[in-house]
Amino acid sequence: MRIISGLHRGKKIVAPLSLPVRPTTDFAKESLFNILNNYFYPDKIKVLDLFAGTGNISYEFAARQAISVTAVDNYQPCVNFIKRTAQQLNFENITSIKADAVAFLLSCRQQYNVIFADPPYTYTDYAAIVDAVFEKERLLPDGFLIIEHSAVIDFSQDDKFYQQRNYGKVNFSIFAQNL
Known about the structure:
By secondary structure, this protein is α/β, with parallel strands linked by helices. It has one domain: Vaccinia Virus protein VP39 (Rossmann fold, 3-Layer(aba) Sandwich), CATH 3.40.50. The protein has five helices and seven strands, in the order H-E-H-E-H-E-H-E-H-E-E-E. The protein has helices at about 25-35, 55-65, 75-90, 100-105, 125-135, and strands spanning about 45-50, 70-75, 95-100, 110-115, 140-150, 160-165, 170-175. It has a seven-stranded mixed sheet, sandwiched between helices. Helix 4 (about 100-105) runs parallel beside helix 5. The protein is globular and about 40 Å long. It starts with about 25 loop residues before the first helix and ends with a strand. About 40% of the residues are buried. The mean pLDDT is about 95.
């Protein structure tokens, strides 16, 4: 994986093979950020990265100088890797937290411009993520919830669903409060 734009552009990050992760592909990540650039100024946003894994998405937001990036994962070695890598890259805007994603959404008090969730493709409780984000008002008024998922998942009937984008085997569903 590599940082596509901003600080450390082109920097390759090698995660330990022992981490049980599936990092978002560079192609899909670049496409996602092209979409986000139409809605947000990267250096003016607060980001929550759920199921952060290697921190791939967190580093990309941090490199684009997001105000803050909170990376949440329930696997301590992933949290440790993100902390170590953020420190090596001098990304003071990344905070890495060990927590269950849904529990974090239910208990935190912060609001975000972008919430990115990339659960394992075998994950089944997507509704809990969407419900927690909107019921607990975790998005700022013009914010997006973005869920990365496999092609078999369809959110199009959800009332907060905005659009879906497909990049090979990677699918992003975008949810919004005010669109």
